[in-house]
Design goal:
Number of domains: 2
Strand content: under 5%
Helix content: 25-40%
Radius of gyration: 26 Å
Number of strands: 0
Structural class: mainly alpha
Order of helices and strands: H
Shape: rod-shaped
Number of helices: 1
Largest sheet: none
InterPro entries: Putative_zinc-bd
Distance between the termini: 80 Å
C-alpha cells in the first residue's frame, strides 16, 4: 500500500477491515471519501417549486369557487 494507512471500514459480511488506502480524511473512496451529501436531482422538490404548486392549487380552488357562484 505504499506506506499509506488502510481505510479500516469493516465489511458487514466478513467483519474484516477494508484494505484500500485511506485518503486525507481517513477513509477510502469507497467508504465516504468524497461525498458532500445528497445532490438535488430535480427542481420538483425544491422549496420554491413546492411554493409555486401550492399557489397554483389555491388559484385553481378560487377559480372553481367563482365558477360555482356564476352558475
Amino acid at each position: 500500500m505504499n506506506g499509506l494507512k488502510p481505510c479500516g471500514a469493516h465489511a458487514r459480511t466478513t467483519g474484516k477491515p477494508c484494505r484500500q488506502p485511506a485518503m486525507a480524511n481517513g477513509r477510502c473512496r469507497l467508504h465516504g471519501g468524497k461525498s458532500t451529501g445528497r445532490p438535488v436531482t430535480s427542481w420538483l422538490w425544491t422549496k420554491e417549486a413546492k411554493e409555486i404548486r401550492e399557489e397554483a392549487r389555491q388559484l385553481i380552488k378560487e377559480v372553481k369557487e367563482l365558477n360555482a357562484m356564476l352558475k
